Amino acid sequence: MHIDIRSDTVTKPSPGMRRAIADAEVGDDVLDGDPTTRRLEERVAELLGKEQALFFPSGTMANQTAIWVLSEPGTEIFADETSHIVEREMVGASALSGVQVHMVVDDGPMMDATSLERAFRPPSRFTPRPSLVCLENTHNSGGGLVTPLSGLKAMSEVARRRGCQVHLDGARLWNASAATGTSLAEYAAPVDTVMVSFSKGLGAPVGGALAGTAETIGMAREARARFGGAMRQSGVLAAAALYGLENNLSRLAEDHDKAVEFSQIVDRAIAASVVPPETNIVMVDLAPGLAAADVVRRAQDAGVLVSQWTPTRVRCVMHLDVSLDEVTRAAELVRSALDEAWRAMGDTSEWPAQVP
To answer: How is residue 283 annotated by DSSP?
Structure first.
């Protein structure tokens, strides 16, 4: 049996969550509104301090709906060059909303107000008009790094000065809040819409939500139907998300502690360095000559499933389905896989001394 730390999306519904699914009160959400889905949407809106929220099959669909609602075809939207919207949503912004994505080049691991400000071109009849800025917190490709509230406010202010609306991809906003003590509503206040995901960290099998004003969510409901996301007895899914909010939101700091434990062990490998984790994601950068695909294969052979993020970066994510003992064991096995990959390169006479 492998220890699976490829993502926090690999979790299975717990017995309690399965009971909640089985006992869910349901109705036709398209015709009359599903009562359990309504309760979930009301709870999410309350947590995020927004007027309304809307349940979606996935966070990606919710992100793309926000872009459709807040932008305008033929305009330009701005997003971090390594954001989920840029890297992992199948060019949805262009294909679905007819907008051009201007990728913001970062000075550090993720976009900030300075790099965003620099990305805007002087107004000209020869360049597209900007309409939307998309933020991300926590930053997935950055290694689960948190943008503090001051940073979100600063970027939102840049967007407002340029006449843009602001969307926040908060798939793991739960983790940002758990790591900093900043409430979800405080994080959501500077932006027009915010997406949260129930399958990341909270243990639900599927689902996300988009929150904003009543007018915006009314438009989002139209877009969700157009994208094929209107659901019938969606309460069976919403019940799992509600269970996750009620039972798993408060325990996310445990996953952050696991990430620290994992990182400290793996960072002793000969030819790799770990990005110090702020939440539940651990990125491992490899020394020149090592290939992430090789390390992933060796780790799998040893009994641990991890992800190749780039050709030279491996991603590991802590979650509620791995215990601290399993995390420690996985870290030792990944460290061994890294060292074996280094030895397989050949001459070891120039090896750096291994940290004991």
So the answer is: E
CB 104 within 8 A of CB 116: yes
CA distances, 254 to each of 124, 170, 277, 306 (Å): 50, 20, 13, 20
The reported pTM is 0.96
Q: Which residues are registered as beta bridge partners of 169? A: 136, 195
Contact (Cβ atoms closer than 8 angstroms) between residue 244 and residue 226: no
Taking the C-alpha atoms of residue 256 and residue 274, their distance in angstroms, rounded to an integer, is 15
Q: How many CB atoms lie within 10 A of CB 297?
A: 14
Tokens coding 202 = 């909270």
Q: What is the Cα–Cα distance from 104 to 111, expressed in whole angstroms?
A: 7
Q: Name the CATH architecture for the domain at 15-247.
A: 3-Layer(aba) Sandwich (3.40)
pLDDT tens digits along 203-242? 999 999 999 999 999 999 999 999 999 999 999 999 999 9
Query: Measuring CA to CA, how many Å separate 92 from each of 129, 138, 144?
Result: 19, 21, 23
Give the chain's end-to-end CA distance (angstroms, integer). Answer: 29
DSSP state, residue 139:
B
CB 320 within 8 A of CB 7: no
Instruction: For residue 121, give every residue at least 6 positions away whose Cβ sits within 8 Å of its Cβ, in sequence order, or none.
Output: 127
- Domain range summary for the chain, segments of one domain joined by +: 15-247, 251-343
Per CATH, the architecture of 251-343 is what? Alpha-Beta Complex (3.90)
